[in-house]
Amino acid sequence: MIHQRECPIETVIHVLGGKWKPTILWNLVESTKRYSDLEKLIPDVSQKMLTQHLRDLEHEGVIQRTVYPTVPPKVEYSLSEYGRTLVPVAEMMCAWGEKHNERKQKEPAS
Amino acid sequence: MIHQRECPIETVIHVLGGKWKPTILWNLVESTKRYSDLEKLIPDVSQKMLTQHLRDLEHEGVIQRTVYPTVPPKVEYSLSEYGRTLVPVAEMMCAWGEKHNERKQKEPAS
DNA sequence: CAGTATCCCAATCGATACTG
DNA sequence: CAGTATCGATTGGGATACTG
């Protein structure tokens, strides 16, 4: 992947743009969650995508991964302080998205 | 494509998430542009993608397409009033994206 | 001028099976 | 419990050629 991002909007889309990334984010806003919690909270996500998205978000510094070296293993995911700076952006996107969805329902023709 | 959008963030990503869509949007914020203007302003976009993205944005109601039935044809694209409601959202995304890009440059390690 | 049409490659995502 | 590995289907995007 080329890491010249002319447009910073693409950066946000890159960070948030994965099928389950927004959902993961919302779930971690409330509180820290274990891997298995996220699996239950997001029933339709495959293990592959959940793991991949968690790794991506971790790499971007948005979430933190904490491993407890116990048997069986315990891994917790939480929003980092930095990740919380993304929340207002996500909320603004969410607000526009909601209005847009309503609008599209009202005018199927145009 | 399934049009159930559980998360409205995905809606925004769907509207703005195409390789050249943000760029197209920025170019239309200033003023109305002709198809050929956009081709010149965005040299790396292929005709296929430019046309496709313009159609997408038009379908979402973000831009307006005006055809002048002259020979040769003249087609103008402009941001709709509705499309302008998306600009503040895009700007907020842009601001976060810029900071994020700076951050990533500063800490290549972690 | 403003597009279409076609072919092809790369990335994304899902399903399934397996493991420290 | 928390993953990894592999395969295959779908989608996004680029290159080229052609048209009302």
From TrEMBL, chains A, B:
Task: Give one Pfam family, short name only.
Answer: HxlR
Q: Which UniProt keywords apply?
A: DNA-binding, Transcription, Transcription regulation
Q: Where is the HTH hxlR-type domain?
A: 7-105
Write down the InterPro entries for this protein, in alphabetical order: HTH_HxlR, WH-like_DNA-bd_sf, WH_DNA-bd_sf
Q: Which organism is it from?
A: Paenibacillus chondroitinus
Task: Supply the name of the protein.
Answer: Helix-turn-helix domain-containing protein
